[in-house]
Specification:
The protein has 318 residues and is an alpha/beta fold. Helices cover 45% and strands 13% of the residues. The chain has twelve helices and twelve strands. The strands form four sheets. Strands 5, 6, 7, 10, 11 and 12 form a six-stranded parallel beta sheet that branches. Helix 3 packs across helix 4, helix 8 crosses helix 9 and helix 10 packs parallel to helix 11. The longest helix has 22 residues. The protein is elongated, with a radius of gyration of 27 Å. The relative contact order is 0.13.
Length: 318
């Protein structure tokens, strides 16, 4: 009886496996595609190949290395772009051997020197060849304006980078969660808004580590970016931040919103000073809450995308 059960079980399993293999649409389609899509060899003597090579000369751009600038300090690199001649040739051969610019295949080329290869230095802007601007919001107060700013960011489909004071997060966990759950990037803004350049290395480390711990326990993430309160730092501060695997972030354009400027005048001044790679500093204030939408519109009208600080600093081309 046991042998009979074993035989029947084996028969059923074999039947099901065979049936599944024959009837599986993904497997069938994959095999069909392999038969109908033979490998195309590259013939460099083909006129089509030469046209692609000539077109590549117009489109290829070299990568830009990260560097230490005398004014802007650490500046990230930017990927180059190159026409993949062989892939473009094979693609056009499959399309009837017809050359077309929109059928060219491109690939990005990484720079030789990356941001992490540089000695520790603060970052004041992204690569000037990357048409992107970042909005950074330093938070240690201004709770009443945060919901409105988050509403505008959501309506405009923009993600900003919020640098949070550790003691503020401890007192306002729900607001911190609201910021993070809206998809915004979270950075470290020290624990008690100290003058970082007046601290010892150990005291500076405690400020940053304690804030990271509060953010991790509240938001279940660890910041990779640090914005010193009031922009106060020295070489020691930057080295401490670097030793923690983080980057010191400054700004390119300051809204000076804490002085309660007229929102329209503030926005106009910011837009007159932004460019590719700009980091725009603001706080949760009445002026920034009321001027945020106009600022976003103006940035986009000038041809810039808006991304988080991390997106601005990465080497990917737009």
């Amino acid at each position: 009886m046991k042998k009979l059960i074993v035989h029947w079980t084996a028969f059923v399993l074999i039947f099901l496996f065979a049936f599944g293999t024959v009837q599986n649409p993904w497997t069938s389609r994959y095999i069909h595609d392999l038969k109908q899509d033979p490998v195309v060899s590259v013939d460099q003597n083909n006129p089509l190949y030469e046209k692609i090579v000539q077109a590549a000369e117009k489109y290829n751009e070299p990568a830009i290395d990260a560097k230490i600038d005398p004014v802007w300090k650490a500046v990230p690199g930017y990927n180059g772009i190159k026409v993949d001649v062989a892939a473009s040739y094979k693609k056009m051969m499959k399309d009837g051997q017809r050359f077309a610019n929109d059928r060219l295949v491109f690939r990005q080329v990484e720079p030789d020197v990356h941001l992490n290869d540089l000695k520790p230095a603060p970052i004041y802007k992204g690569n000037p060849n990357k048409p992107m601007v970042s909005l950074m919001v330093n938070v240690a107060w201004g709770n009443e304006y945060i919901p409105k700013m988050l509403k505008v960011l959501k309506q405009e489909h923009v993600r900003a980078t919020f640098f949070l004071d550790g003691s503020w997060v401890k007192k306002n966990p729900d607001l911190a969660k609201m910021i993070a759950e809206a998809g915004n990037e979270i950075g470290n803004h020290a624990y008690s808004h100290p003058d970082m350049k007046a601290l010892s290395a150990e005291a500076a480390r405690r400020q940053i580590v304690k804030t990271n711990e509060v953010i991790r326990s509240t938001l279940e993430m660890k910041p990779k970016l640090f914005a010193p309160p009031s922009g106060s730092y020295n070489k020691q501060t930057v080295k401490v931040v670097d030793s923690l695997g983080m980057k010191t972030i400054m700004w390119t354009v300051d809204t000076v919103d804490w002085k309660n400027p007229n929102p329209d005048a503030m926005v106009m001044r910011v837009l007159q000073n932004i460019g590719s790679g700009s980091l725009v500093l603001m706080h949760p204030t009445k002026a920034s809450a009321e001027g945020l939408a106009a600022m976003i519109h103006g940035i986009r009208e000038r041809g810039y995308q808006i991304g988080t600080v991390s997106a601005l600093l990465d080497e990917d081309r737009l």
